[in-house]
């Protein structure tokens, strides 16, 4: 997909589809653990593939995948939702308040996962991290090192914001 918006919509839609497919597992004993494992495994596999495509070593793909899988599983298992108790729904206003509260918490969880993924990518991949590759690309387009680093940092912040929006 050529458009950032289309990629965002596609990825958000696929995430929703994953959720719908896995939803019935929550009703069976042990289903939540299976769901967490599947989501973590999917994140691990996607990240390992991404690292391999960027020229990473097998060790980098393994550790990057492990870090992404762990972050996904951690923020699914230890939900921020547990920190706030749901309020009682007594009408339309309280329903929408609870809906927004839940959406905000889901967005914050996705945001935290994205930050963990960015940090682990930088640590594991070094000069082949998404941040470093963006800095290099901006420098090649004529920006100074300082300008390139700022632009890449803005890109990472946008990525975190999109993760929040997708979770929301």
Characterize this entry briefly.
The chain has 168 residues and is mainly α. The protein contains six helices and no strands.
List the main descriptive attributes of the protein structure presented here.
single chain, 168 residues, mainly alpha, 6 helices, 77% helix, 0% strand, globular
How much of the polypeptide forms β-strand, as a percent range?
under 5%
> What is the C-alpha radius of gyration, as a whole number of Å?
18 Å
- Give me the secondary-structure category: mainly alpha
Outline type: globular
DSSP helical segment count: 6
Q: Please trace the helix and strand order, writing H or E for each element.
A: HHHHHH
N-end to C-end Cα span = 22 Å
Unreliable stretches covering 5 or more consecutive residues: none
Mean pLDDT: 87
Counted beta strands = 0
Note the main sheet: none
Helix percent reads over 70%
Care to describe what's here?
- With 168 residues, this protein is an all-alpha fold.
- Helices cover 77% and strands 0% of the residues.
- It has six helices and no strands.
- It has helices spanning 4-22, 31-53, 58-77, 92-125, 130-140, 145-167.
- Helix 5 crosses helix 6 (145-167).
- The longest helix has 34 residues, at 92-125.
- The radius of gyration is 18 Å and the shape is globular.
- The two termini are 22 Å apart.
- The relative contact order is 0.10.
- The model has no long low-confidence stretch (mean pLDDT 87).
């Amino acid at each position: 997909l050529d458009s950032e918006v289309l990629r965002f919509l596609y990825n958000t839609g696929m995430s929703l589809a994953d959720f719908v497919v896995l939803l019935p597992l929550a009703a069976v004993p042990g289903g939540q653990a299976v769901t967490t494992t599947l989501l973590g495994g999917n994140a691990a596999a996607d990240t390992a593939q991404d690292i391999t495509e960027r020229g990473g070593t097998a060790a980098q793909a393994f550790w990057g995948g492990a870090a992404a899988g762990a972050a996904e599983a951690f923020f699914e298992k230890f939900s921020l939702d547990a920190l706030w108790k749901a309020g009682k729904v007594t009408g339309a206003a309280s329903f929408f308040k609870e809906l927004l509260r839940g959406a905000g918490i889901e967005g914050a969880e996705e945001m935290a996962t994205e930050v963990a993924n960015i940090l682990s990518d930088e640590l594991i991949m070094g000069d082949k991290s998404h941040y470093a590759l963006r800095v290099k690309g901006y420098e090649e387009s004529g920006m100074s090192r300082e300008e390139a680093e700022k632009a890449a940092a803005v890109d990472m912040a946008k990525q975190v914001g999109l993760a929040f929006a997708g979770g929301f």
